[in-house]
Amino acid sequence: MLQNKIQDVFNEPGCSKNQSKSDKERKKGCTKALQPGGAAGGCAFDGAKIALQPITDVAHLVHGPIACEGNSWDNRGSKSSGSQLYRTGFTTDINELDVVYGGEKHLFKSIKEVLDKYDPSAVFVYQTCVTAMIGDDIESVCKAASQKFAKPIIPVNAPGFVGAKNLGNKLAGEALLDYVIGTEEPEYSTPYDINIIGEYNLSGELWQVKPLLDHLGIRVTCCISGDAKYHDVAQSHRARANMMVCSKSMINIARKMEERYQIPFFEGSFYGISDTTESLREITRLLIQQGAPAELHDRTEALIAREEARAWQRIAEYTHRLRGKRVLLFTGGVKSWSVVSALQEGGMEVVGTSVKKSTREDKERIKEIMGQDAHMLDDLTPREMYKMFQEARADVLLSGGRSQFAALKNKMPWVDINQERHQAYNGYEGMVNLVKQIDLALYNPMWALLRKPAPWDMGEART
């Protein structure tokens, strides 16, 4: 059953890159087979867990050794406006006897214990490598537990060894499609209802965009999965339009919701002024196409004009200090192109952007924004990154925490742009915040102090 699901995901019609392949190549999937040890921190289980963990009012129970839960627990700064249950780690913590005799009874008892102690809206059960290899059937256990306790118990069958993180994202989406989406009906629906797919509310970024939509009367029925509630996900099939944010990691959800429930979707971004504007316009267009009043268009344009003017006025305080500064963007996915646009709007020059986790469509977007000679980096070793700073080809690095040391070792500023960050950069307000953080990093007086020779070196120079 799992292999059939994987083949179905590999044959994703919504991915134009996938459809350009031959039948043989399509079956191989999008990534190379993982080598032993290569799955650590980036396996299918990890991808499934980070995709679903922002659903805040459910218990996320990992069926496997405790190290699997430790690897992925709370590894993103996804915020919640309500329940904090999603931040509690649950694991069956199987032992040697479970490996020998099977862990299904252990799993059933763990589900009961979680329900008794926490009474969550649902329990998501994640398969891991060890329990998959010993043959534990989590689908059957979840079905039996759901019938016994009258609560939704959702199996997420994405053991780490089946592939990389992106495959895990899609398998998580399949679990929602199979067991959650469409299982409940909302009390009411409106012509202004939308879903946002692939947005994880990192550092509260969803909350920077939601006021714009609220002002227009557009209701976010569900965000999959940032700050989501189980019942919202279950009722999300009644939305009128879908916006897909995260670089097609959940394209299967958007595409199958269009097939099953006739909900049109588009891929957009809320990073940068122009991308935020285009996303608002596309949401409005789809809603009007689906039956919303035509006057929504005029109200959207009025909001855009007001917010753009306000954002540009605030950015102008920093533009003269940032104009011409060279930025190395070392990230992936949707940020590989959407942040490029945002940086250029701030007057900066992007000397290179990584595309290791980006799709073919992402790369085409980069070429549109930066030109055909865009410096797209498939991979960049720390040594090469360090050399770029030494040769003064970049003034600041925007990346995740693992890449910061090449810049810091070279006494150059670094700004966190990855999921662990503590700043929100979505929407018009987020763009102002991004420019402000880059300005603070570049002009922090500590860099000048760090680059000065040490006092003892200055003394040697005088003698």
From TrEMBL:
Q: InterPro entries, alphabetically?
A: Nase/OxRdtase_comp1, Nase_comp1_CS, NifE, NifE-like
* A UniProt-annotated Pfam family: Oxidored_nitro
Indicate yes or no for the key word Oxidoreductase: yes
The record's listing under CDD domains reads: Nitrogenase_NifE_I
**UniProt pathway annotation:** Cofactor biosynthesis; Fe-Mo cofactor biosynthesis
A molecular function GO annotation = nitrogenase activity
Keywords for this entry? Nitrogen fixation, Oxidoreductase
Tell me, which GO biological process terms does this entry list?
protein-containing complex assembly
Per UniProt, residues of the Nitrogenase/oxidoreductase component domain are 43-439
The UniProt family comment states:
Belongs to the NifD/NifK/NifE/NifN family.
**Cited function:** This protein may play a role in the biosynthesis of the prosthetic group of nitrogenase (FeMo cofactor).
Identification of the protein by name = Nitrogenase iron-molybdenum cofactor biosynthesis protein NifE
- Highest lineage ranks of the organism? unclassified sequences, metagenomes, ecological metagenomes
* Gene for this chain: nifE
